[in-house]
Amino acid sequence: MTAEVLLSDTFDQWRMKNNEWLSMGDPSGSSNFIKINVTTNSTSNTTGAITTAGGMGIGASAVVGGNLTLHTDSDLAGTTNLDVVDIDGAVQIDAAVTVGVDDTGYDTKFFGDTSGQFLLWDQSADELALVGDTKLSFHDAAGGENIVATSDGHLEINAGTTLDITAPTVDVNVSTALNVDGASQITGAVTVGVDDTGHDVKFFGATSGQHLLWDESEDELALVGDTKLSFHDAAGGENIVASSDGHLEINAGTTLDITAPTVDVNASTAVNVDGATQLNNTLTVGVDDTGYDVKFFGATAAAFMLWDQSEDDLILSGVAALSIDTTTDATNTTSGSFHTDGGVGIAKKLFVGTDLDVNGTANLDAVDIDGAVQIDATLSVGVDDTGYDVKFFGASAGAFMIYDQSEDTLEIRGASADATTSTGKLLLSTALTDINDGDVIGSIGFKAPLESGGTDAILIGASIFAEADATFSSTVNSTDLVFATGDSDAASEKLRIDSTGQVTFADGAIDVDIASHDQTNGLKLGGTLVTATAVDLNNIVNEVNLGKCIAFAMVMGTEA
């Protein structure tokens, strides 16, 4: 069924024919247009002044006064001039992308998920910048990060990656300078073309002849002119710069992280590092049985540390010294600030600032000890039948104690400064703090410990000891001197000189024998020699008190 609807007024005509809406500007139908005065914005494909369930074909130019939202694919065969473009979906570009023209470029910015992070082509600076703390990453086939350049100036080459400096894949023409001054930031993947079908990408700057080019026909990224590639830190300073004169500059405060690549430097190539170098992994020079000299110079002429591969020695030359500032004490051979599995040879003096613990035998030709010495085991000087003198000096000139090995004698010599006090002194003391009557203060014993008879033979045969005669106080130190001897048992008291000077012989059958009494030598009382003989004294029997007679005879020195 075919029908026509014709609407007409003085100026315009509208008609519908064969399922078409025709609008004519005059009766001849030379101009067709639809004018809708409704100003409602479209928020979807079913709202607005015009809606259609199908597509729309426009044979000529179309002008959109507001925002243009496309819910599906858009195929533009001609040139599209857009003042402002806001694209919320993925974009596939199948041809070359050019921003600006030679010597007139425009800033190009790619934002990431984090505020302040973006990739910027700065046309005024002629540089590609990674802004913020973003990073540029190259991935391996499995998707792992192998080479990463971060915004803090780190170039990270991760495990399993090999960086070949000798013959790299990136070719820069001789006439091309690689120079980056600005910050660079990439927060997401950038894809131009598809696998095996790429497209040139060019970024122009503010200066004539300056541009960044990805040349798809050569499979290379080129910086044309005297531009540069630069990595910045968070503050905006240049940390790593590859300049057009062939210099790779790693500036102060920059860390170059090479996680586990193989870096090959030709034998003819010299490496000169002017700044501080931080190594965070193993440094190997040479291989097993083929080493190389390594030399570290100091601030003083001729002072250096040398690993001499020909001698297999680490040498400190000149005024160079080994200084270890760790203050950890050593408690065994594998602890402390310094330890070695082998011995240590020291040609000069050894100074130990604190304790010295020697578990083995210390063979010392000469020992000079300025501090206290603690010995926790037996001290032996010499061996059986080969001894050595041991000498202890006192605070006074000439005073010392010596064990004289040639004389087998222990000698205590007094000071030479004063003849009246220049005697050797042996002091025996006690650690008791509360001295009571009967406490022994000091003792000298005499013993034959190696006697083969054993039993009584090896007991102390005689002793001399000092015994308190009262409880000590601030005004009392009464002390007896006791002489003990043994006969068939341990030594026991035989003679006592008490604190007042009284002499007492022990009870029992003890004789006081004056060996010589020839009326010239013998017993004296009060300085007077007793001339009476024992026979003379024994003949005095008529006196009532024999003791008094003996005492009288001793005092008078006459015969009865």
Account of the 3D structure:
Among the domains are: 1-45, no CATH class; 97-250, no CATH class; 393-505, no CATH class; 524-556, no CATH class. The model is unreliable at 167-184 and 541-545 (pLDDT under 50). Strand 25 (479-485) and strand 26 form a beta hairpin. The longest helix has 11 residues, at 546-556. The strands form nine sheets. A five-stranded antiparallel beta sheet has the order 23-24-25-26-27, with no helix packed on it. The protein has a four-stranded mixed beta sheet with strand order 4-11-12-13, with no helix packed on it. Helix content is 3%, strand content 24%. By secondary structure, the chain is mostly beta strands.
Task: Name the beta content range.
Answer: 15-25%
How far is it from the N-terminal to the C-terminal residue, by CA?
Answer: 193 Å
Strand order of the largest sheet: 23-24-25-26-27
Spatial shape: rod-shaped
Unreliable stretches covering 5 or more consecutive residues: 167-184, 541-545
Helix content: under 10%
SS class: mainly beta
Number of strands: 29
Mean pLDDT: 76
What is the radius of gyration?
A: 57 Å
Number of helices: 2
> Biggest sheet, open or closed, and with what strands and sense?
5 strands, antiparallel
